[in-house]
Amino acid sequence: MKVLVVGNGGREHALAWKLAQSPRADTVFVAPGNAGTLGEAELGVKNVDIPSDDVAGLVRFAKENEIGLTVVGPEAPLVLGLVDALQEAGLRAFGPSKQAAELEGSKVFCKDLLRHADVPSGDYKAFKDAQGALSYLNDREDVPLVVKADGLAAGKGVVVCDNRAEAIDAVERIAGRREFGDAGARLIIEERLHGHEASVLAITDGRTILTLPPAQDHKPAGDGDTGPNTGGMGAYCPTPLLSEEQLAMVEETVLVPTVHHMKRKRRPFQGVLYAGLMITKQGPKVLEYNVRLGDPECQPLLMRLKTDLLEVLDAAVDKRLESLPPLEWDPRPAVCVVMASEGYPGAYEKGFPIRGLDDAAALPDVKVFHAGTNMINGSVVNVGGRVLGVTALGDTISGAKLQAYKAVKCIRWQGAWCRKDISDKAMTYQ
Question: Which parts of this chain are annotated as the region Disordered (predicted)?
Answer without folding.
Answer: 212-231
